[in-house]
């Protein structure tokens, strides 16, 4: 509905309206008696927090017993009686593809509708199909089949699936149920919808009518058009493409057809209903279905209520079309917080590694809505609940939504923090302390489990609830707290603790989210001290947490680092770890770095003396960039040398011969020495920066204010890089061969990629060493451009740069080849329906989203341009986040032609290849120019290649039409699911999926630029409408920002893909009165980030520009 419609609520007497929900609950809504239907519809949508609300509506029985949909623009009392108004919440538009439903909660409601239709007999089907549908319902509600508990079919007797439910049917249901072990409720819902959509009468509602000869028929409307049935058999279909006009006259329903080309012997078809109301009711349903499924946009025309003579019905569809809804969801989508299912009887058998385990509860909830502008939700318990629930075990844990396009890294409740393999092998040597110890006064809720199920009932005259929440950065609490005692006395952080019970999980989750009211829980770890978050009064219905203190964070080092660097005290303060205060309650700070942040508000004289500013030392911040990125590089290496190796050790201990020894020796014999040398280099850099910060006065020029000698001494490691780069392709090939020949290894490999610590595809981490040399070259180049020739650090930097350049120049082509190979391997995994994509001479050029003209109009397709062919795909309707190949065209003989004025679609062009012609349209003129330029250049290069080099046998099906049968791909998708790819959440951050959602494209040149612009460090982050700044460790790589609490965390809390974002400096209207702040914006998603110095600000701006592909408003000076 429009904001104007939703915003006008009549005053006056209220009435209670009962709404029967899909889970058979009855909820009452108090609305004004004189309100329009849209008011009630919006109340129901808001209470359910429906993002894809346009698929649903409210239906009622009129005084004649006709089932009608609520008219949103008509007064409520003109549709139902004021004595006992009743409605039923139901699915209105049955989508033919459940994959188009973005939210798991929407699919859950669709599944409840299918369950209702099955029980009422509205989906007539065979017994086998009915039993299969019922088995998915059982799997979603009860969980896995337990042989010791379900000894016979009687455990199904409490379910009423069908009108005539027999023991034979229950036995079939039990048999199917046994085959669903391992499916989560979300997967069972998806499979239920995928099976139901194939039933011929899925979503069909029959309306009795007669033809012009008086023959009894039944009419129905669906997504494809108007259907005609006779005795439950479909005898005709009038598709929307055939229909020119729909109208009714009294009892007569008229379908006017296009005069030519459709083979029907009449241009107008007439049907007769028993009453005028029945005829008009069916006509209105046809109008709405045509508008929703067929139209791109529906003009909102006000109804003329002052006319004297009626010229027909003024009814028009007033909601979003399916195209508008898809765009709206992509703009406003967030990974939905946990919702509660309508059963508590779910049980789960033991599953394989990585299977989802979830507990369910009822759909009812009384929690209020506390959404902040960032989309974060805080679940606050009432005082009564706090007193009555002394343990987390008694609280309800709800099922985690497993929707992926979202972008934040998911974490199941049972494995909130993964135990580091390093801590398992050296447990006795490391103090078992925590970065944020569990507190008896803190309760932590992960954002994905903390949002309320329903918002409180409200009226549109109050500020309308905005569903446009942040889809990427959702897992980070608004304010990060540091233990006061730990801040004064720094401790060594061990790897993330392994929570052993639900109490510890829930407590840790609540602590990270920063819940203000914290019940007391008993844990095995006694806290030191903690400070609560001080919340400001509610603004616009939102709770705005404020920072409660401003302390300096002290250096946190691994025990191994402290043992080797005995001269560095733990009280030395690094500027990278200092909490940058927001002028709320300033406290005296330790001695500052060369260029502390400037504050706008006035402070006390003592604080002013403590924050004395010194001239900026650009070399210090360049060296500091080296330190920040080295820490990230160390963590990336540990993914392979610690976590992946530990998986190998555990497998070897199980005596299962699934890991190829040759591969493991080849990989770790080159990576382990690199990791050890790097750890030593990192300790030296940390020591040098600590000394540098201690001698940062402008009048001093100590010997420690340099970094070139440390880098020059590290150049002996270059031989290790040479050895690794030379073996890199061999390692990749061995991994591919092992995956093809060893199914067990492939499963374990994919399961490891599904772990939170592996936040990128595993092959990407193998490229990090080669990319690191490029960053060394960048750092040394910046230092030399800053120094004078007579600077005491100039010669060392120059010599180090020459040695690094020698290696990067020598292996430049080989590294480019490896990056292309890695990209092909990634695409081979994510594309379904194509074989042998990885070819020695094949080069990746561009990937992106285009609109392709088909029989249904322009449809979104994902295109991949290679050096020898063009492939187009669409996203599969499975949880694997893969793309199904529809066709491919060879570049040899291809012609690209820009369309003239005859085409009414903007930015369109034609691609001719072989005997095919593709009409496509880009989102912008810029995108169109990029595609045409790359296509023309690739076609010219393809002509120069010999015929023997052209490979065109990689498509599994020779057919390249849009109508590829999904059954052809069933085996591939099943294999992917059995391999655990359904658990991989980082795929949503890959360029392929970001391009799909953001409707853009990325070229191989963009990948090269992004590789050269990787960055990490501490930033302060602020949402558009929040008050406080939150300090985060931020890593930029692969076109994406990853957010951590500290650099020592093993995996990111959340992520933000940057493709499509614009990078600017804050405008005057943003009211950001701070230095060194840049603004990221994509449509209505706005984030502010604050750097600590001018150099750091420039570097982040430069880096962000390389990833967002968007111009900034104010140019940044060249570095």
From TrEMBL:
Compartment(s): Cell membrane; Cell projection, Dendrite; Cell projection, Dendritic spine; Cell projection, Filopodium
One Pfam assignment: FERM_C
Name of the molecule in the record: FERM, ARHGEF and pleckstrin domain-containing protein 1
CDD domains: FERM_B-lobe (cd14473), FERM_C_FARP1-like (cd13193), FERM_F1_FARP1_like (cd17098), PH1_FARP1-like (cd01220), PH2_FARP1-like (cd13235), RhoGEF (cd00160)
Domain PH: 843-940, 1012-1109
Compositional bias annotation for Polar residues: 353-376, 433-443
Domain DH: 618-814
One Gene Ontology CC term in the entry: filopodium
Upper taxonomic lineage: Eukaryota, Metazoa, Spiralia, Lophotrochozoa, Annelida
Superkingdom of the organism of origin: Eukaryota
Membrane topology reported for the UniProt record: Peripheral membrane protein
Keywords, sorted A to Z: Cell membrane, Cell projection, Coiled coil, Cytoplasm, Developmental protein, Guanine-nucleotide releasing factor, Membrane, Repeat, Synapse, Synaptosome
Broad class of where this protein is predominantly found: membrane
Domain (FERM): residue spans on this chain: 15-297
Positions of the UniProt region annotated as Disordered: 345-446, 510-609, 959-978
Ranges annotated as biased composition (Low complexity): 408-418, 558-578
SMART domains found in the cross-reference section: B41, FA, FERM_C, PH, RhoGEF
Entry coiled-coil feature ranges: 721-755
GO MF term list: cytoskeletal protein binding; guanyl-nucleotide exchange factor activity
Residue spans of biased composition, Basic and acidic residues class: 397-407, 510-519
Species assigned in the record: Owenia fusiformis (Polychaete worm)
Keyword Secreted set for record: no
């Amino acid at each position: 509905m429009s904001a104007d419609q939703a915003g006008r609520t009549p005053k006056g007497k209220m009435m209670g309206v009962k709404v029967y929900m899909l889970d058979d609950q009855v909820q009452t809504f108090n609305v004004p008696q004189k309100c329009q239907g849209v008011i009630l519809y919006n109340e129901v949508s808001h209470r359910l927090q429906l993002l894809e609300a346009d698929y649903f509506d409210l239906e009622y029985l009129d005084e004649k017993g006709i089932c009608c949909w609520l008219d949103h623009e008509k007064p409520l009392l003109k549709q139902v009686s004021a004595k006992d108004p009743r409605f039923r919440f139901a699915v209105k538009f049955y989508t033919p593809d459940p994959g188009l439903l973005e939210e798991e909660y929407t699919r859950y409601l669709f599944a409840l509708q299918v369950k209702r239709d099955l029980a009422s007999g509205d989906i007539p089907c065979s017994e086998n199909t009915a039993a299969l549908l019922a088995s998915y319902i059982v799997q979603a509600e009860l969980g896995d089949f337990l042989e010791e508990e379900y000894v016979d079919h009687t455990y199904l007797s409490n379910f009423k699936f069908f009108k005539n439910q027999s023991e034979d049917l229950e036995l079939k249901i039990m048999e199917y149920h046994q085959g669903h072990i391992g499916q989560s409720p979300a997967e069972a819902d998806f499979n239920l919808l995928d099976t139901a959509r194939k039933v011929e009468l899925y979503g069909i509602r029959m309306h009795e009518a007669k033809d012009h000869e008086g023959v009894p028929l039944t009419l129905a409307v669906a997504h494809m058009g108007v259907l005609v049935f006779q005795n439950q058999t479909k005898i005709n279909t009038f598709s929307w493409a055939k229909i020119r006009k729909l109208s009714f006259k009294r009892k007569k329903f008229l379908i006017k057809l296009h005069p030519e080309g459709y083979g029907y012997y009449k241009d107008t078809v007439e049907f007769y209903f028993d009453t005028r109301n029945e005829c008009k009711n069916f006509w209105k349903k046809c109008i709405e279905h045509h508008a929703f499924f067929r139209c791109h946009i529906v003009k909102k025309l006000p109804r003329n209520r002052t006319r004297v003579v009626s010229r027909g019905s003024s009814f028009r569809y007033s909601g979003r079309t399916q195209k508008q809804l898809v765009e709206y969801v992509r703009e406003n989508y967030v990974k939905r917080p946990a919702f509660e299912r309508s059963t508590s009887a779910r049980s789960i058998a033991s599953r394989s590694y990585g299977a989802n385990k979830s507990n369910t509860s009822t759909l009812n909830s009384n929690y209020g809505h506390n959404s902040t502008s960032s989309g974060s939700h805080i679940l606050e318990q009432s005082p009564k609940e706090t007193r009555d629930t002394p343990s987390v075990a008694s609280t309800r844990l709800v099922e985690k939504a497993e929707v992926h396009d979202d972008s934040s890294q998911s974490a199941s409740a049972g494995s909130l923090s993964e135990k580091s393999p390093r801590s398992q092998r050296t447990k006795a040597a490391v103090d078992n302390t925590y970065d944020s110890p569990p507190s008896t006064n803190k309760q932590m809720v992960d954002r994905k489990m903390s949002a309320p199920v329903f918002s409180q009932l409200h009226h549109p005259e109050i500020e309308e609830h905005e569903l446009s929440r942040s889809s990427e950065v959702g897992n980070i609490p608004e304010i990060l707290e540091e233990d006061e005692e730990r801040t004064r006395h720094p401790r060594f952080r061990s790897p993330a603790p392994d929570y052993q019970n639900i109490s510890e999980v829930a407590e840790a989750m609540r602590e990270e989210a920063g819940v203000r009211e914290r019940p007391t829980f008993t844990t095995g770890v006694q806290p030191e001290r903690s400070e609560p978050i001080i919340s400001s009064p509610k603004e616009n219905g939102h709770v705005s947490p404020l920072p409660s203190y401003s302390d300096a964070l002290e250096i946190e080092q691994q025990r191994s680092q402290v043992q080797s660097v005995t001269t560095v005290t733990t009280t030395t303060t690094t500027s990278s770890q200092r909490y940058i205060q927001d002028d709320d309650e300033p406290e005296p700070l330790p001695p500052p770095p060369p260029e502390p942040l400037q504050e706008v508000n006035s402070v006390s004289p003592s604080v002013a003396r403590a924050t004395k500013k010194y001239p900026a030392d650009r070399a210090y911040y360049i060296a500091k960039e080296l330190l920040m990125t080295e820490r990230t590089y160390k963590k990336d290496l540990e993914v392979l040398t610690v976590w992946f190796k530990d998986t190998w050790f555990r497998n070897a201990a199980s005596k299962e011969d699934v890991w190829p020894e040759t591969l493991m020796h080849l990989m770790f014999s080159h990576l382990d020495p690199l990791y050890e040398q790097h750890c030593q280099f990192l300790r030296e850099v940390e020591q040098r920066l600590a000394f540098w910060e201690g001698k940062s006065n402008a009048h001093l020029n100590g010997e420690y204010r340099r970094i070139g000698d440390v880098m020059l001494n590290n150049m002996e490691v270059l031989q290790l890089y040479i050895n690794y780069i030379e073996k890199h392709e061999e390692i990749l090939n061995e991994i591919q061969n092992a995956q093809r020949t060893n199914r067990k290894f492939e499963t374990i490999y994919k399961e490891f990629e599904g772990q939170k610590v592996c936040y990128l595809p595993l092959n990407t981490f193998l490229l990090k060493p080669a990319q690191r040399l490029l960053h060394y070259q960048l750092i040394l180049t910046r230092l030399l451009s800053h120094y004078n020739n007579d600077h005491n650090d100039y010669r060392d930097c120059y010599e180090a740069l020459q040695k690094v350049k020698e290696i990067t120049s020598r292996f430049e082509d080989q590294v480019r080849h490896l990056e292309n190979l890695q990209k092909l391997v990634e695409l081979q995994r994510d594309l379904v329906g194509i074989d042998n994509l990885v070819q020695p001479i094949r080069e990746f050029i561009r990937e992106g989203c285009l609109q392709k003209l088909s029989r249904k109009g322009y449809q979104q397709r994902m295109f991949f341009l290679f050096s020898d062919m063009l492939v187009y795909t669409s996203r599969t309707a499975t949880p694997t986040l893969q793309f199904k190949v529809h066709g491919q065209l060879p570049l040899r003989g291809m012609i690209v032609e820009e369309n003239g004025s005859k085409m009414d679609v903007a930015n369109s062009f034609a691609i001719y290849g072989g005997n095919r012609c593709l009409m496509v349209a880009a989102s912008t003129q810029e995108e169109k120019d990029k595609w045409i330029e790359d296509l023309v250049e690739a076609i010219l290069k393809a002509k120069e290649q010999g015929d023997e080099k052209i490979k065109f046998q990689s498509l599994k099906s020779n057919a390249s039409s849009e109508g590829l049968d999904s059954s052809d791909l069933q085996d591939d998708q099943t294999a992917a699911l059995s391999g655990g790819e359904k658990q991989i959440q980082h795929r949503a951050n890959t360029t392929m999926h970001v391009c799909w959602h953001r409707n853009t494209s990325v070229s191989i040149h963009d990948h090269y630029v992004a590789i050269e612009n990787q960055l990490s460090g501490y930033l302060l982050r602020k949402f558009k409408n929040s008050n406080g700044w939150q300090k985060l460790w931020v890593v930029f790589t692969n076109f994406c920002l990853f957010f951590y609490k500290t650099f020592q965390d093993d995996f990111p809390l959340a992520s933000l893909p940057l493709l499509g974002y614009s990078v600017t400096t804050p405008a005057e209207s943003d009211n950001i009165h701070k230095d060194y702040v840049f603004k990221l914006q994509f449509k209505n998603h706005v984030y502010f980030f604050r750097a600590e110095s001018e150099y750091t600000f420039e570097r982040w701006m430069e880096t962000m520009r390389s990833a967002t592909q968007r111009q900034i408003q104010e140019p940044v000076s060249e570095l």
